[in-house]
Amino acid sequence: MEKWPVCFSDLVIVGNPHSSVAIVTLWTKKEFVLQHLSPEMYALVGQLYSRDEGVNGILRNLLSNKQIRHLIVVGIDLNGSGNVLAAFFQEGVAEQHTVISFPDIFIDKEIPLSSLELLRNNVQFHDLRSLKDFSQLPPLLHQFPLLSSYGEPEYFAFSKPSVPATYPSEKSGFFVRHSHIGPAWLEILSLILRFGTIKKSDYGVDQRELLNIISVIEQEDPDAPHLESYFQFTREDLLSYYPQVLTASSVEGVEYSYGERLRANKNIDQIQQLISLLQKNKNTRRALAVTWDLEKDSSSEKPPCLILTEFLVQDDKLFLTAFFRSNDMFHAWPRNAFGLRKIQFHVAAATNLSVGSLTIISSSAHLYQNNWTLAQDILSQNALLIPRIGDPRGNIIIRAHDGVIYVTHTDPLGKRLSEFSNTDIFALYRKIAQDKCILDTSHALYLGTELQKAAIALQKGIVYVQDKPLEF
């Protein structure tokens, strides 16, 4: 007999392998139930978080120990995993290996339908999710009829996870922040290839689309651009593009340019107007320019993609936000970003302001199908930049001594902002999250490891020093 249980052996509690009872506690901690039971009463007890992998694990464990004839479900069902398990026993599995009533939940195809039916016909499902007092479980267990094994254990191969065409995501609102345009573009390509919804475009070809990528560029100088080898344009291409966004000059063979729309829309130079506004009042919220022409663009086959630019001043720095209704993130976005940065530098110089960041909101951020492979090749040859330091919300300093972990939050320059301490690292990470002390995911992951190191050091009575390995 193979090692049992075959799934989640590190997470479930095994009692008496010859018992005919298995207990699932769903999202309720299994320890709350176990304190009312003796090990002789059950074969195993475990939780069930996942509606897919978790349910499959339970079925594999049951089929590999056919002495289990009673499956009891108790606890809080936060995500409906208990409903899936109940539907399996009550309704069964369709020919496509989906749980009837849950067509999005697949049972492993390595498990034959005949084995699944054998399990359903021989294991009694006891739905006790309404039970609040777990001390009532022992007398209930004693009432179950004693049933013998219904066959030899069955074991099935495990398949590798299938790569989905699109990974699950938040659907709208993807945030990218980098000092320069190049690494931001790589991250954007990675996001769209991984999470982009595949759909038809207005031109009949497939596209991968994300809604509302918000990209922030902090330091790029358009007059001394960081031109990466993976860009699909040269310095000469960029220099010839700048006049299309900075001046009202028309471009031969092009229906319009952004520069025309910004500087000659209804014969109004909106850029010069907003410069004048900022020169009079740097606190104005009216320094904006639009490209949309209501008469032309509402019925146009080729309306502008860039819709609006807005300039705002904080701490004597000029910030620019641009909104695109539609943004080709492969060919257009890098050029757009450099062009907008050029406009921002121009307005800042005319208003005697220093330059803040550029924010681009790309409402429909997409890659056309003919660029998917090339984008993937670029990513395979160029690693994403994942900073661990430089979080704009500051730094976290961790110390541990006398049984307590101390946390200091500083600004990016090292000025102390707050201090707090606790013996419980979970209380500390909740405090850090609650106060929004960090922005970067990489910073959060790093802090998780450091807090755990500090907790281990206190537990083992050894010295903890941030960023250094523990010496046992």
Short structural summary:
It contains 14 helices and 17 strands.
Fold and architecture overview:
Helix 6 (181-195) crosses helix 12 and helix 7 (235-246) packs across helix 11. The strands form four sheets. Strands 8, 9, 10, 11, 12, 13 and 14 form a seven-stranded mixed beta sheet that branches. The protein has a five-stranded mixed beta sheet with strand order 1-3-2-4-7. A three-stranded antiparallel beta sheet has the order 15-16-17, covered by helices on one side. It is an alpha/beta fold. The mean pLDDT is 95. The protein folds into three domains: 13-143, Rossmann fold (3-Layer(aba) Sandwich); 172-381, Thymidylate synthase/dCMP hydroxymethylase domain (Thymidylate Synthase, Chain A); 395-460. The protein is built from 14 helices and 17 strands.
Please name the CATH architecture of the largest domain: 2-Layer Sandwich
What oligomeric state best describes the polypeptide chains here? single chain
Counting structural domains, the number is: 3
SS elements, strand count: 17
What is the fold named in CATH at topology level of the largest domain?
Thymidylate Synthase, Chain A
Q: Give the strand content.
A: 15-25%
Determine the fraction of residues in helical runs and give it as a percent range.
25-40%
Radius of gyration: 30 Å
Can you tell me the CATH class of the largest domain?
Alpha Beta
Structural class computed from helices and strand pairing: alpha/beta
Low-confidence segments, given as residue ranges, are: none
Could you tell me how far the N terminus lies from the C terminus, measured between alpha carbons in angstroms? 39 Å
Q: Note the total helix count.
A: 14
Largest sheet: 7 strands, mixed
- What form results from the Cα inertia axes? elongated
Query: Could you give me the name of the CATH homologous superfamily of the largest domain?
Result: Thymidylate synthase/dCMP hydroxymethylase domain
Mean pLDDT: 95
